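Researcher: Re-running this chain for the archive, since the previous output was lost when a drive failed. Same request as before.
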Amino acid sequence: MKRFHFDSTALRYFLTVVDTGSVNGAAARLNVVSSAVSRQIAGLEQRLQNQLFERHPKGMRVTEVGRILADHARRVEADAARTYAEIGGQNGRYTQTVKIAGAHGVAARALPPKFAAFQAEHPTVRFNLTVLDAGLVTERVRSAQADIGVTYSHAAEKDIAVIYAGPAEIVAVMRPGHPLAKYDALHLPQLTAYPLALPEGGSALRRLLDMASSLYNTTLSPAFTSNHPDAVYQYVLAGNAVTLCARLTAAAQLNAGRLICRPMDDALLNKGQIQIQTHVARPLPDAAQRFLHFLRDDTAGLA
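Model: Regenerated structure tokens:
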């Protein structure tokens, strides 16, 4: 059977266009002329007999065929990095970076202490942490941009193995002395009487909240939205606003007493999980595999 091979330069140029969103941006990052990038993309499209990008005035948007090729290219890069690290280990110069994608809150609070604890026993291991919206973490794992994902999830995901799952309680967060603080638990319609501070539309939590509000025939009209949790908490501290988030996300504010929370009496909101995820079929580099075992055996702080 004839073997099919992609040129490594073409894949590298292609992935750079995917990451930057334009030929000019890719050329600047690669330090080559734009025509060289365009030739590589055109060559790939001709070979595959499919369009890899939709061309728009503001940039290049990857097609479904392009997404499939990007996933392949990232897997090739990940496999090459793993092989290089294994060879380096045989030669006694084992240094490897473990790539972690983590959701806001759980990533910034729970993961860095675990990195430090692991490195105390494995000083040659390096960590790279990318903090994202929960829904984007899984995509990073699926596309080989991350070895391990730590995120909130509400459903099974294609190509994803769940190594650990714990409850992810969604709570209403407010300032001390807020009128809603007198209740032991809250229902979603109660919150609409107060200014709402919510994640931006499109985030995993926001989609869940919109789904829950539709069940109650309630419209969530946020007075303030942001993709940064600390900005939301500062807004909530300033008045009678309420926000909704996983309890762990607001743990620093809650433990310090700056904010308080009340549980949500809602089965849909509370069926989510904090998950440690890997790709179901892609082997992990040795250092990532060892850290995964460490993380699975020490899940304190993840819930």
